[in-house]
Amino acid sequence: xxxxxxxxxxxxxxxxxxxxxxxxxxxxxxxxxxxxxxxxxxxxxxxxxxxxxxxxxxxxxxxxxxxxx
Length: 69
Fold this sequence. Notes:
Elements: E1 2-4, H1 16-22, E2 28-32, E3 35-39
Parallel strand pairs: 1-3
Antiparallel strand pairs: 2-3
């Protein structure tokens, strides 16, 4: 499992479109071969104190042990 720090998910539209074009993993849950990755969009901001058309989030992950056969 890979847990990645916040990306602001682009933070401010329409500038967020440039971020989505440049970066492969912006925000969400991804399946990468035998691994899972979670990228948070974070709950704050950088620079101007606004977020336009991007969601703030705090991720809560519940881990359970794998069944041992």
